[in-house]
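Intended use. Records like the one below are meant for learning the mapping from a protein sequence to its folded structure. Do not use them to infer anything beyond what is encoded.
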Amino acid sequence: MTEKRDVKSLDLSSITIMGTSISFIWAIILSIIILIVFSFMGGFNIALGLIALAIIFGTLILSISSYFGISYLYNFIVKKIKKVVIEIEDIDSVKSIKSISILPFALITAIISLIIGIIIYPIIFIGLSLSAMPLIQSLLVNTATQSFGLLLYQIVMLAISPMTIVYAFVVPLLFTIIGSFVFNLIAPKVGGLKVELESCGHMTKLNSVNPINAGIITGVILLVFGLVIGLILAIIGGNILANLSLILILVLGGFAGGFIYGVLSSVFYNFIANKSEEVKLELPLSQK
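Structure written out for the chain above:
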């Protein structure tokens, strides 16, 4: 049996706790990798330890605000525009998500990104203007560091350009459309994204996610992202054939990284959901 359900609202508390917990675990893993790699390269020092701590606790702080803010904005925006609809298939009590409405999901994602971009743009502008410009000037006056200074200058100019706000809308819109299209294409071929759902009053609890399905789907989506980014960089470079190795690295790296990320994130989710609190969503039957 297949049914369509509206993603009417997200539970702020459960999504913030779950998202922050998973991000925190990934931050610890990243910090350990950085410590191991750089310790082998040049030996462990206090600076490395401080960087690792900054990554871990910086991720914790940013995750709390971002997951809460994004969930809050979703609940606000979804009331104003067309709702996101997911198609769920139920076979022998195993539920699988087969598709997601592309344009509503992409539009909501882009609007949320735009609002966040508008909020943080003044902070980025002031912060980079005060901190990066003096550093760039010092790099430019030194012949040995001029090339790096010019590169950093271009990056900063791009970051503080008002066009950044436009990019904050356009880029997420395009990549969410591509990602959702790929999801709808690949999910039915792998049996959908298998999940365990449980009714909880007017909300629905996401008890678990199948790691292998999540890994395959995430891997294919990031493979396509890698291909798109690789082609864009190759076109900008003016020679697609000369950049085939870069495209290949981005494609294969995208799939491998996406698969690992999807599998491990699902494992983390299932563990945390079993020990703490599952994500809750309001998923009424779609009226369309």
